[in-house]
Design goal:
This protein has about 140 residues and is mainly alpha-helical. It is built from five helices and three strands; from the N terminus they run βααβαβαα. The protein has one domain. Helix content is about 40%, strand content about 5%. The chain has a three-stranded mixed β-sheet with strand order 1-2-3, covered by helices on one side.
């Protein structure tokens, strides 16, 4: 099976995903990707738009190519790599276990893995979800 292609900052977004998104196609795609990851599909870290971005790329105003998103990826790769104790950069393959997700969620709650979230329109929602103990999130591993 092909790996799920993810840009680094989406490793943070996955932690608080509760089924909300930019549009119905985005949410449906996100649900499929979460199901694949939950089933053990390997993650391939990529540079630029990934499998989650795909439903948005037909929009000329898609933010997926903006320098601010590239900076989010850099910060997330650094922070997630520190939490997991391994490199998180384009070309790296990951298979994250439930304990890995728990470590990432703990780092998300305490702010150690939130630098990439600065200025994100979803940051408030994600903070609320994290404060609730990640209630309603679709990725297993709580």
């Amino acid at each position: 099976m092909n790996p799920v292609r993810l840009r680094p900052h989406h490793l943070l977004c996955l932690q608080t995903y509760v089924g909300e998104g930019y549009n119905a196609a985005f949410v449906a795609g996100y649900d499929r990707i979460v199901a694949r990851i939950a089933a053990g599909t390997e993650i391939l870290i990529v540079e630029g738009p990934d499998d989650l971005c795909a439903p948005l790329l037909g929009d000329a105003a898609a933010h997926c190519y903006r320098p601010s998103v590239t900076e989010r990826d850099r910060l997330a790769g650094r922070d997630v790599g520190l939490v997991l104790g391994r490199e998180v950069a384009p070309g790296i393959r990951l298979q994250l276990s439930a304990p890995d997700w728990r470590r990432l969620r703990a780092a998300f709650v305490d702010g150690a893995a939130r630098a990439a979230c600065s200025g994100c329109r979803w940051s408030g929602l994600c903070s609320s979800i994290a404060a609730s103990g990640f209630d309603g999130t679709r990725l297993p591993g709580r």
